[in-house]
Amino acid sequence: MSKRVAIFLSGGGSNMRSLVADMTGDHPARPALVLSNRADAGGIDWAKGQGIATEVVDHRPFKGDRAAFEAEIAARLVPYAIDLICLAGFMRVLTAGFVVPWQGRMLNIHPSLLPKYRGLHTHARALAAGEAEVGCSVHEVTAELDEGPILGQARVPVLSDDTPETLAARVLTQEHILYPAVLRRFAAGDRTPIFLP
């Protein structure tokens, strides 16, 4: 029985598209829902075009009441009988109240070689620190931001003329390879980390 996956996003959803493209054939998971906090997220339109169910829970009406916002998200998941959640550029920090019930069933991709550069502006921070290489990590989501067990990493060399934007673009290419590979293994019950060169 395939796992039913909900993919959370806030923007264009390029990682979502990579995940969906891979979830075919004998893959142990299927995309059941794409959820966003933004009605204008490009990823929502794309998912609709693919015939994937979508939900939008705008965070703004909740005026900082994260518990109420997360309760609404949880309620929207129920009809879809979701087994796994993949965060794919979902730009809201989820609290322990939401994360703990899903712990062990929720993944995130982060554009750094964790535990380095948790949070935002990872590429600018890595360049400022003079890093020779950067990359991306897929990890299980826990109550602490970008702290969960690492399930995969891919490395990208820093070039002498790199900017945060050029670095982000090259890292994103690796994200599109790494995240589907990790999800395929994770959905089959294998938590062995994948490390790409």
Which SSEs are present, and which pair or pack?
Layout: E1 3-9, H1 14-22, E2 29-36, H2 42-49, E3 54-56, H3 66-77, E4 84-87, H4 96-102, E5 106-110, H5 122-128, E6 133-140, E7 150-157, H6 164-187, E8 194-196
Describe this structure in words.
The protein has 197 residues and is an alpha/beta fold. The protein has a single domain (3-190), classed as Formyl transferase, N-terminal domain (Rossmann fold, 3-Layer(aba) Sandwich). The chain is 34% helix and 23% strand. The chain contains 6 helices and 8 strands. It has helices at residues 14-22, 42-49, 66-77, 96-102, 122-128, 164-187; strands spanning 3-9, 29-36, 54-56, 84-87, 106-110, 133-140, 150-157, 194-196. An 8-stranded mixed sheet has the order 3-2-1-4-5-6-7-8, with helices on both faces. The chain is globular, with a radius of gyration of 16 Å. The model has no long low-confidence stretch (mean pLDDT 97). N(1)-(5-phospho-beta-D-ribosyl)glycinamide binds at residues 13-15. Its EC number is 2.1.2.2. Pathway: Purine metabolism; IMP biosynthesis via de novo pathway; N(2)-formyl-N(1)-(5-phospho-D-ribosyl)glycinamide from N(1)-(5-phospho-D-ribosyl)glycinamide (10-formyl THF route): step 1/1. It comes from Roseovarius lutimaris. Belongs to the GART family.
